[in-house]
Specification:
227 residues, alpha+beta, Lysozyme, 5-stranded mixed sheet, 8 strands
Length: 227
């Protein structure tokens, strides 16, 4: 039986047993859909899920709505945040550095604690904290993006120790050059259509339930499965 999920996300199984998600109410029978009448597309990194809209071909497309939201909230340039995410993790939400930095914006454990991040590998939490921290650094250095980025990479102590100048570290200087190159040349498309989130919630009895929604969840464990 074809059913609707939260926020008018509809789902059914195709002939191969894969879950198909759509933001449009099915117009034909499940039997027709099972035989290919409703076209669906692969969802990156979700081999058992299909969508009736073409999924983004680039990982960056999946997180652009989060970046724009938190950039606007914190009065930080969106293209600057995109560049930081690209250089820090190449848009890999599971990235971990040799120094222990985690997620899309490579939060250090102390920074994650400072901003109340429960799961640094959750894209929503990670971007929220990373952009807020970047705003804090911009305020600390009177809006000087170069110093704020140097502090994001090497730490504010290193910047202050060098007289509030960019530390003479090759890694930091290369980091700034890469950020500058990307943030001044990259052009990102606007988000295409609603993002589809898969939300897993655990009841008081310990039972897991899964739902799909086009509204960014404020609770539970979630992941983006398509757009």
């Amino acid at each position: 039986m074809t059913t609707s999920a939260y926020a008018q996300i509809y789902s059914w199984r195709d002939a191969e047993g894969r879950l198909v998600l759509s933001d449009r109410r099915p117009a034909a029978s499940v039997e027709l859909k099972a035989h290919g009448a409703a076209k669906s597309y692969a969802v990156p990194r979700a081999t058992t899920v299909r969508a009736t809209r073409l999924a983004p071909s680039r990982p960056s497309d999946l997180y652009d709505d989060l970046i724009v939201e938190h950039a606007q909230r914190n009065r930080v340039r969106s293209d600057l945040v995109r560049a930081v995410v690209q250089v820090e993790s190449a848009y890999n939400p599971a990235a971990v550095s040799s120094k222990g930095a985690m997620g899309l914006m490579q939060l250090m454990p102390a920074t994650a604690r400072q901003y109340g991040v429960a799961n640094p590998f959750n894209p929503g939490e990670n971007v929220r904290a990373g952009v807020a921290y970047l705003r804090e650094l911009l305020d600390r250095y009177q809006g000087n993006e170069e110093l704020a980025l140097a502090a994001y990479n090497a730490g504010p102590t290193a910047v202050d120790r060098h007289g509030q100048n960019v530390p003479p570290y090759r890694e930091t200087q290369n980091y700034l050059a890469r950020i500058s190159r990307i943030s001044t040349t990259a052009t990102m498309p606007a988000p295409r259509g609603p993002v589809i989130y898969k939300v897993t919630e655990i009841s008081a009895g310990g039972r897991a339930s899964v739902r799909y929604t086009d509204k960014r969840p404020s609770a539970g464990t979630w992941e983006i499965v398509g757009r």
